[in-house]
Amino acid sequence: MRGLVSRLLAADGLQAARLRDAGVTGAEDVGLDDLHRLPMVTKQDLWDHYPDGLRAAPADAIVCVHGSSGTGGRPTLIPYTAHDVDVWAQVMARALGGAGATRRSTVHNAYGYGLFTGGLGIHHGGMRLGATVVPSSGGMTDRQLRLIQDLRPDVLCCTPSYAIHLGEAMHAAGVDPADLGLRVGVFGAEPWTAQMRDQIERSLGLRALDIYGLSEVIGPGVACESLDSGGMLNVAEDHFYVEAVDPAGLPVPDGTPGELVFSTLTKTGMPLLRYRTGDIATLAGPADGSARTLRRMSKLLGRRDDMLVVRGVNVFPTEIEAVLLADPRVSPHYLVVEDRRVSARAELRVAVEPFSDTVDTAALARDLDHALRERLGIGCVVRVLGQGGVPRTETGKARRLARWSAGEPPIPGLE
Ligand code: DLL
């Protein structure tokens, strides 16, 4: 941490100015115990300093950039040095190794290649591990199925929503996943629930693990579940020091949901001290009896800015998803719509698809309405659409939340 503070002070940018304002003039002024007194950085800071971001290394030391399209379509660009790419390969190799991948593995990588960190992050890690990476990228599902049948990968990497889509496509093509030899899937980049995990495991016949990361910090590999991590994700905290904080920025105890804040201890291209992610999770120590020493984080519980306040009640879209997917009649394609056409009377609308044509849609709508009211404490307008009524995402992240403030509904059938 002191090394990071020294690098930031030497780079003399925004973070150095904030450190000096907080009375820090040298690395010896900081310790882990009073970390919460140090300034934070946010996505807004990256937007304000677009496109060079908070680069701390000279331009000729940068070997690549990545980023995300970001909330509200505003891009963020992250510069990486060769050292950063090396750190990324290491943490990703560790994540894949923890999932059971070895040098003998074939990793089918259906995360999108490009500015998005999913494709190349897994790619670097798989190669570092010595596995064979199949860089199939997103989309073109028929070709993906062909490659999976021909190359027989044991590891599948993609977004959880695409894993569901692949499973459906396999079943439609009459392919039995049991014949394929897939052992484990490393799924992330978007929220998914325990129910979705069950569905993916059943449909693809593999063990489904969660991987978390964000481009600002490095990309995938910031934290990843391992076969033995007890349902939580091991944080690569030798590179990314993690805190969970309350809205005032003060630490919350282990087990209490808080916003994740990361400090990149080893990065050099765009090192960040106390980056506020907006992601909400709980933290815990290593699993009992485990040889691993890293702290763990829960699956993400939601995002600070995804929290909907409907008639005074705070609701995270993942809570709605948990209710929907607990019902075996509901397919994992759904859309939550925050209807603010009448601003004083916001309403939640939920569009779902039944698993099959034989489902009694009126009974399903009634039961979901009841279950949502029980769980959230407010009623929602449930619309059961025909199969295919909720658009699929073949590339990139699934869209599960939409806002409707005027005009046409975000998808037909919601009125
Ligand atoms: O999504 C990096 C990544 C790629 C992670 C592939 C895992 C697998 P960004 O595009 O910058 O980076 O988006 C980061 O996505 O702040 C979370 O809100 C969300 N997110 C990432 N992983 C998960 C996850 C990549 N496992 C943002 N569960 C983060 C829920 C996730 N949300």
TrEMBL record:
It catalyses: 2-phenylacetate + ATP + CoA = phenylacetyl-CoA + AMP + diphosphate. Belongs to the phenylacetyl-CoA ligase family. GO terms for molecular function: nucleotide binding; phenylacetate-CoA ligase activity. Pfam families: AMP-binding, AMP-binding_C_2. Its EC number is 6.2.1.30. GO terms for biological process: phenylacetate catabolic process. Monomer. Residues 396-415 are annotated as: Disordered. Residues 312-401 form the AMP-dependent ligase C-terminal domain. Residues 55-263 form the AMP-dependent synthetase/ligase domain. Pathway: Aromatic compound metabolism; phenylacetate degradation. This is Phenylacetate-coenzyme A ligase. Keywords: Ligase, Nucleotide-binding. Catalyzes the activation of phenylacetic acid (PA) to phenylacetyl-CoA (PA-CoA).
